[in-house]
User: What shape does this take?
Amino acid sequence: MKYQYILLFIVVVTAGSCLSGCGGAVPTQIALLIEEKEEPIAFVNNHVAGLEVAKQEKKPTLTFFSIPDSAGSQRMLETTFCDDEIKRLAERFVCIHVDGSQESVLCKSLEVSSFPTILLSNTAGMEIRRLIGKQTPDQLAVQMHVVLQTTAQRPQMIGR
Assistant: This one.
């Protein structure tokens, strides 16, 4: 939502300067800002609530631990979690975002001390993968596929 206000401000300022005769073309820097900013995947921002949703929906979880002053955490929110493939895969998970600066007890209990960290767990809540450090979309997608393959339910036999 805040990006829409920035976009509106830039358009108004640019239009005003063009109408007043100042400058002709939109500078490259402003043109780049006008491009629509991708939104990251939808996260549940409460760990307990996210686990409850996962249990009800019988989905694996992706729990993303970050802190505001971590460049790697912010980069993942801006790029990795905005990637189309990650968004498609995320629909098959319950994605939980934990702010490590506010949830230190939870981080300690789960032995998370480095940010960013991602815990990928199966439908029973058992940790399958722990990814420490910034992950590219390709790196994260591979690990998400692994978890989905290990948590896939076998088709039931018909007639048995």
Observations:
- Confidence is low (pLDDT under 50) at residues 1-20, 22-26, 30-34, 154-160.
- The beta strands are 61-66, 94-99, 117-121, 127-132.
- Residues 2-34 form one domain.
